[in-house]
Amino acid sequence: MITILQRDEPKSDRTTGILTLPDGETHRSIEPLWNNNSAVGSCVPAGTYAFMRETIGVYQYFKLINVPKRSGIELHLGTHPSQTKGDILLPEMCLERMKLVFYPNVDEVYSIEIRD
């Protein structure tokens, strides 16, 4: 089961994209602009990563695993780039849908492909 985040061309203050869930449902995403993979204030480098349910982080939705030179990257609720310092923001409807798909298996690891 793979989830794909296809990024758009960066805007002046954000990187937007389309997150496609395994069933084909799509939702908008927001990340900071690319800043050389800085731990504070950069979008995630393109690549394929593991993600899983987050049960102890700040937002407790989902977290990315094994992002080079980064840790603590979460997928969480947000609608404006000021709400993230390096996480991936998603609308509430997307997170609710992801909970239905991915929450039943708390310890399972899934894949997300992030494309530029």
Radius of gyration: 13 Å
Helix content: under 10%
Largest sheet: 8 strands, mixed
Low-confidence parts lasting 5 or more residues at pLDDT below 50? none
Q: Which structural class best describes the helix and strand composition?
A: mainly beta
- Ends distance: 20 Å
Separate helix tally: 1
The fraction of residues in strands falls at 35-45%
What general outline do the C-alpha atoms trace? globular
* Average pLDDT taken over every residue: 93
Quantity of strands, as a count: 8
Strand order of the largest sheet: 3-2-1-8-4-5-6-7
State the order of secondary-structure elements, H for helix, E for strand. Answer: EEEEEEEHE
Could you say how many structural domains there are in total? 1
Textual characterization of the structure:
- The structure is a single chain.
- This protein has one helix at 92-102, and strands at 2-7, 15-20, 26-31, 47-53, 62-65, 74-77, 88-90, 110-115.
- The protein has one domain (2-115).
- A hairpin with an 8-residue loop joins β4 and β5 (62-65).
- The protein starts with a strand and ends with a strand.
- It has an 8-stranded mixed sheet.
- The chain has 116 residues and is mainly β.
- The mean pLDDT is 93.
